[in-house]
Amino acid sequence: MERNHREDQCNEIEALDSIYCGELEVLISEPLHRFKLPIATATEYDPEVETEGLSCKLVFSYTEKYPDTAPLVEIEDPENFRDGYEEGLLEHIKQTIEENIGIEMIFSLVSSAQEWLNCKYDELKSEAENEKELAKRRIEEEERKKFEGTRVTVESFMAWKSKFEQELGITERKEKIAAENRKLTGKELFLQDNTLNESDLKFLMDAGEPIENVRIDESLFQNIEDLELDSDDDDDDDEDYVPETK
To answer: 117-124, long-range: CB within 8 Å, 24+ apart, which pairs?
Structure first.
């Protein structure tokens, strides 16, 4: 017995109208049915993931030998679709058609398309959540850096210390203190201590020697800068020293 395709098509339209409770919109019924059904994910804005749901309308057109031949499928009014989504959804529906040739398949096509749309929406939510987490980590990292400051190395610390001491005059004071604490040479002591001059004059005067008769051999002082006076020297270091006996 030959299959009555027209009758099968009309029966399917009645079943779809009952299943989708008024969402089925029949565009034409003669000579062949053309109709549309909406599919959608979450339609309300979700502040937690900061993304909106996906939706569109699937437009089906029966062919003369449907369901033994594939119906025609179009997408209308896509909402929040990204590039490539329409092509991807149509390819997915095409694969489902090939699996259902010979039987009424519109319900299966709509369900399969809805599932594909939900998967894409889950990917968008996951992507939005990852971006939100990355943004949160960036903010936390910036806050941590504010408290952490600049990482200090030996080189950066020494450069800062040198600049800091120069600005406060510490370097200059250190150099002054070092100069003041430097051990004077014999010549410097001789030139700075006037009491040495007075003691020599007194020695000559006590000996009854007129000062005018004193002759100074300048060659004796030519290398005086090489001499160091050691305040810690004592008579025990003199090889010719003979202690007094009582």
So the answer is: 117/39, 117/40, 117/41, 117/54, 117/55, 117/56, 117/89, 118/41, 120/54, 120/85, 120/88, 121/41, 121/42, 121/51, 121/53, 121/54, 124/49, 124/51, 124/54, 124/82
Which two structure tokens, joined as six digits, stand for 126?
Answer: 């996951």
Q: Are 117 and 54 in contact (CB under 8 A)?
A: yes
Rounded Cα gap, residues 160 and 149, in angstroms: 14
Q: Which of 185, 71, 170, 54 is nearest to 122 (CA)?
A: 54
Candidates 51, 47, 70; CA nearest to 123 is 51
Q: Is 14 helix (H, G, I), strand (E, B) or coil?
A: helix
pLDDT computed for residue 150 by the predictor: 67
Q: Give the other-Cβ count within 10 Å of 35's Cβ.
A: 19
Rounded distance, CA 129 to CA 136, Å? 10
Write out pLDDT tens, residues 62-103.
999 999 999 999 999 999 999 999 999 999 999 999 999 999
Identify any residues that bridge with 36 across adjacent strands, giving them in sequence order: 25, 59
Q: Please, what is the Cα angle at 174 between 171 and 175, to 5 degrees?
A: 90
pTM: 0.56
Which residues lie across from 72 on neighbouring strands?
61
